[in-house]
Amino acid sequence: MSTKLVQKLDRVVIRFAGDSGDGMQLTGDRFTSQTALLGNDLSTLPNFPAEIRAPQGTLPGVSSFQLHFADHNVLTPGDAPDVLVAMNPAALKANLRDLPRGATIIVNTDEFTKRNLSKVGYTESPLDDGSLESYHVHPVALTSIAVEALASFTDLTRKEKERAKNMFALGLLSWLYTRPMDGTEAFLKAKFADKPEILEANLTALRAGFNYGETTEDFAVSYEVAAASMAAGTYRNVTGNVALSLGLVAAAHRAHLPLFLGSYPITPASDILHTLAGLKRYGVATMQAEDEIAGVGAALGASFGGALGVTTTSGPGLALKAETIGLAVSLELPLIVCDIQRGGPSTGLPTKTEQADLLQALFGRNGESPVAVVAPSTPADCFDIAVEAVRIATTYRTPVIVLSDGYLANGSEPWRLPRTSELPDIAVEFATEPNATDDKGEPVFHPYLRDPETLARPWAIPGTPGLEHRVGGIEKADVTGNISYDPDNHDHMTRLRQAKIDGIADTIAPLEVDDPTADADVLVLGWGSTFGPVSAAVRLARNTGVRVAQAHLRHLNPFPANTGEVLRRYERVIVPEMNLGQLALLLRAKYLVDVESHTSVRGLPFQAGELADVIATAVASLSDAHLKETAQ
Amino acid sequence: MTTDLGMPAASPGAPGTAGVPRLADGTALTKKDFTSDQEVRWCPGCGDYAILAAVQGFLPELGLKRENIVFVSGIGCSSRFPYYLDTYGMHSIHGRAPAIATGLAATREDLSVWVVTGDGDALSIGGNHLIHALRRNVNLKILLFNNEIYGLTKGQYSPTSHVGQVTKSTPLGSLDTPFNPVSLALGAEASFVARTMDSDRQHLTSVLRAAAEHRGSALVEIYQNCPIFNDGVFDVLKDRTEAAARILHLVDGEEVAAGDNVVVRDDRGSLAVVPRADADPARIVRHDVSAQDPSAAFALSRLDSPDLGHVPMGVFRNVQRPTYDDALREQISSARTNEITDADIDALLAGRDTWTVATPAGS
Known about the structure:
The complex is a heterodimer.
Chain A: E1 5-9, E2 11-19, H1 24-38, E3 41-47, E4 62-70, E5 83-86, H2 89-96, E6 104-108, H3 114-119, E7 136-140, H4 142-149, H5 158-162, H6 165-176, H7 182-191, H8 196-215, E8 221-225, E9 233-239, H9 240-255, E10 259-263, H10 270-277, E11 285-288, H11 292-304, E12 308-313, H12 315-331, E13 335-341, H13 358-363, E14 372-374, H14 381-396, E15 399-405, H15 406-410, E16 412-416, E17 436-437, E18 443-444, E19 470-472, H16 487-502, E20 513-514, E21 522-527, H17 531-543, E22 549-553, E23 555-557, H18 563-568, E24 572-577, H19 582-591, E25 596-599, H20 608-631
Helix pairs in contact in A: 1-6, 4-6, 6-8, 9-10, 9-14, 11-12, 17-20
Chain B: H1 47-58, E1 69-73, E2 88-91, H2 97-107, E3 112-118, H3 119-125, H4 127-136, E4 140-146, H5 181-187, E5 192-197, H6 201-213, E6 218-223, H7 235-238, H8 240-246, E7 247-250, E8 257-258, E9 261-265, E10 271-275, H9 295-301, E11 311-318, H10 324-335, H11 342-350, E12 354-357
Parallel strand pairs in B: 1-2, 1-3, 3-4, 4-6, 5-6, 7-11
Antiparallel strand pairs in B: 5-11, 8-9, 9-10
Helix pairs in contact in B: 1-6, 2-10, 3-4
């Protein structure tokens, strides 16, 4: 039992930062898992360079993992860390500007050598020059204490022992925030099952870190954050990419369709391929294709054969898939295209987040080529959005583009597990019989004879006798599907395809507005991954008495039917986006409402504080204007 | 790290159409059953007509249910092919047919999947998909109509046009070294590679038969005449006397010969065509279609010359190795034990680290 003081906190933001080879993502993941099991609500933000091992000890090589956990509902990974764990001078320098005064810094002093300091432009050690005096600095010789703790491991090299320093740090933080370590121990045992020596070393370093916290005088207080009050249920922690993968599997199961993924590796989407590739026992077929085009092509071929064809990618890959998505629009077959957006244009910022593919998703194809577009709002929502995407794709026989992003893909949060049996029933019926008669009264099959309600055409898969037919990218005659170059037919078919997509709005929930005082004049409207930061900003603003309404779009094409009506209800509408105003452009064009864009393309999610200021300023300016009007 | 896949080498020796439902005994389809109601719109005199007739005439021979046959094509004159066959079909986009057909074949063991493509579609814009389909050995039959020209875009040179060929886009002659489709396919690890010609119905049919029988990717290059933009390019092979002297018929186990000439192998393994009278009988090449080492087949493919002096025709290579689609199905079926239930999915969603929040007191 520790005799030290234990202090209760309601929330903490910790950032682990180190060299990209230091294992910071793993450390953050494990700490998150321990925290999740304690019942805190949480949100995470991994942030790492595109280079696998950038030059050691340099600023570009810094990798970090931020975790926000609390005894109450958490919406973002936190604007500013309360605690920074800096494994080297680069990690300190790269992250210091994000720390508020009074924050705690735990530094690995072993790495503060003259050479490492000079790599990042420190002429003097910031640990000695007084520049950190407004922070609580805990200098800990993490590496050498970890190595010392492993003295008895004579078969391990010094380098191998040094590698355990992240486990030592994890142990120390686990003590500091009273996190149980059993989950991490079990994880290590599974990971190093066939390397007993390495396993023992990691466990020893982990426990040594914990014990260090308990015994050293440098840490006088440890902290507790009580479990959050959350809706009853069974929870797990989940990242957006894993939730999306699971959503696709569950949706395919509910649709009674085999799942086929055709994909080409690309950051930050590859984890979906990895996850699904491991699920063969659920009947999931995955193919790592020769390129992005083959990935979507194989998926479309699988859909033609009656499978649920899925492809996963990021912005540059979506560009390459455009022609095949256009073919799917013409063939009117279900196809799921997941675009895990990253900074662009071109290669852009592969590991950083952005929402700048919205217009590409809607319009990035030749001709009038409408597709459904949906976007998840949180990591856990990636599950629900996958099910929704499959519902739309199979019901309307259309490609659906899912716009996730790097922030959702790698970020995580607790997810209340749904019951598979309670997921929407999206069972698909293939065509089995001729659907018309020819002029001689013989039964015939017309592949483009539509369902009057959904305008979807029949899905008649090869192997069905009597329904042999040909489809293709050349314009088809209405109903028969034969090649047609007739001008009126093309005009008709173009409008039909658009009407089919527009009609999806009939089956999606109306845009809901959260306006607790019911008298706000300002609406903040977000889409996709801005949900967390926007909600946190709205909460902050309301806490200071600002009246503001909030709404969030998960359907980007078509929009919910009442979107225009909602926009017109407010005097000012602010649309925050991680692009230069793409949703704002669409809303202005479609609804003639003068929405205001607030944008940021820094490769990072919005900060709640920054958005709260934007909201407060907008509301204040409106009150000022009202006052002036009244005065006049 | 590699894993022993531990599977029966994906049914080696199984016929290409194993798993595809067959017609009931005593029933048969005819050429007419495979003819769609669509008007054929190729130019008069196009070699595609002869190939279409040969395919329509051959398909009944397979004894398969018509609804289990699918033709997938890309873009180009040849790629209109599926519209004229009364099977399932997809006229897709330029160069991508092998990729699309791969997804279809991988998920549907019960289909006989054919790809129809041309020299531009398969070797230019779709070159990547072609080589990877061959490498993976997907159970697809790829019919590559080679007319050494772009027809649908009206007469530009193609990746099989010869150096110096004057076309609309090469008024001073083409600068590109052409591909030899057979050499390319062999280099891409193809397990079945053949060449035939539009005008030789009997030979074409025999090659289609061998391709259909083969389990795995089959690449069939079909010399095809474009009467509008490259007319007569294969005419010397259609003249009976010329053909006899030029065409090296590849027949398994037999000497490779044309007229009075035979193919001999020198000390370094290179092949040459020499008068039989001058040939050392011990050096005359006998065709071994199932040789695992593709070197001999490759050497035969190099006997081509731009002037069609000597042209090997027939099946260059026909070897058995696991197919991608069989292997993928095998991985899935050996991983899954029974029908997936809702409870299985529930367990999957839960993963390993869960915690439970009880109903809060008072609520």
